[in-house]
Amino acid sequence: MANYIVHAIALAETVLDKSALTYRRSFGQPYTQLSYIWYLEGPGPKIVVDAGVDSEYLAKVRGIPSTDIQSVGAGLEKFGVKPEDIDLVIITHLHHDHVAQGSQFKNAKFIVQQAELDGATNPHPTVAPQYPKHFFSGLNFETISGDVEICDGVSVISTPGHTVGGQSVVVNTVKGKVIICGLCTIQENFEPPESVRKTTPVIPCGVFVNLFDTYDSLVRIKDSADIVLALHEPKFRDTAIG
């Protein structure tokens, strides 16, 4: 099986209440999370996971204190790649901060779960603000359902709960199976404090459409991976895994 290296490319940092990431815990604690795209370097197609966001949208439109770290182009340039060189963009879910920069990947096919695209196109009123349609309405989507191999060494697994059709990306590396978690999490969701681990192996994220599915998806990811990469964990900034 082909091996890839996962490059975490941080685009923006955001300050929010930690309870948005850790269900019913850490209320009132400010936390700085990062928003990433993930470049998969390997022998197959040029792949990016998620399309990212910039601080201008987060701060001016969403009202979330944010600062830019780098642009999509600057992040990819470090690996000799331009946004227009990317063949595939695997979208974990269609919340604004994971698809806002999608138009930069002009030649890419966007892989998303059919349930996620359906839910984003016709969202429930309670989650509609998370899905600005102008970010994704013109993208070249390929829809899939369930667990699917994308190419040799890269596959996706269905991990709903945070959204109706979330998916996580499984990457084969020399260090083992890496899973980029498709739910908005930090490492604490997978590595709870010892006092919490006595009752639960994971902490659900604080934003979800189905709490039970969220828990089950996190357990599936934790049990399946050699290395878990949480989507908003700040410690992955400027790191390569694999």
Explain briefly what this protein structure is:
This protein has 242 residues and is of the alpha/beta class. It has helices at residues 55-61, 72-77, 114-121, 194-197, 211-224, and strands spanning 5-17, 30-41, 47-49, 66-68, 88-90, 109-113, 141-144, 148-151, 154-158, 167-173, 176-180, 227-229, 240-241.
Would you give an account of this structure?
With 242 residues, this protein is of the alpha/beta class. The chain has a single domain, classed as 4-Layer Sandwich (Metallo-beta-lactamase, Chain A). The chain is built from 5 helices and 13 strands. The strands form 2 sheets. Strands 1, 2, 3, 4, 5, 6, 7 and 13 form an 8-stranded mixed beta sheet that branches. It has a 5-stranded mixed beta sheet with strand order 8-9-10-11-12, covered by helices on one side. Strand 9 and strand 10 form a beta hairpin. It is globular, with a radius of gyration of 16 Å. The protein starts with a strand and ends with a strand.
Low-confidence stretches are none
H/E series, N to C?
A: EEEHEHEEHEEEEEHHEE
Helix content: 10-25%
Number of DSSP E strands? 13
Mean pLDDT: 96
How do the helices and strands line up, and which of them pair or pack?
Blueprint: E1 5-17, E2 30-41, E3 47-49, H1 55-61, E4 66-68, H2 72-77, E5 88-90, E6 109-113, H3 114-121, E7 141-144, E8 148-151, E9 154-158, E10 167-173, E11 176-180, H4 194-197, H5 211-224, E12 227-229, E13 240-241
Parallel strand pairs: 3-5, 5-6, 6-7, 11-12
Antiparallel strand pairs: 1-2, 1-4, 1-13, 2-3, 8-9, 9-10, 10-11
